[in-house]
Design a protein that fits this description.
48% of the residues lie in helices and 14% in strands. By secondary structure, the protein is an alpha/beta fold. It starts with a strand and ends with a helix. The mean pLDDT is 94.
Length: 123
Amino acid sequence: MSRVLPDELAERLGTDDEPIVVDIRPESDYESGAIGASRNVPVYDDLRSGDETTLRERLGEVPDDREIVTVCKMGIVAKRATRVFEEAGYEASTLAGGMSGWNGYERNSLGYRLRSLWWRLRG
């Protein structure tokens, strides 16, 4: 399963290589702060409980002509969404660290820089 680091995603936003960013968090979390180019498909609670049905039913809402990058709070539940997209034939990746990673990237926090180094070393 593929992942995209926050700085890599930021570089691709607004370019010809821009992925479709699918934020799976609940609508209230999405409304309190999200990646500007993202769209909300609030299936986090279902996926967290192991139910993939809602996401599978909503796949038609997401175009399949570009890579999908899934986002949740920390990136853990988004991995399940990425797998569902891949099984449906989409090219999909998970945003490493989720919104926590994205927010750290935007603040250029020390925690983000250390995690980013760790992600890069792990490959």
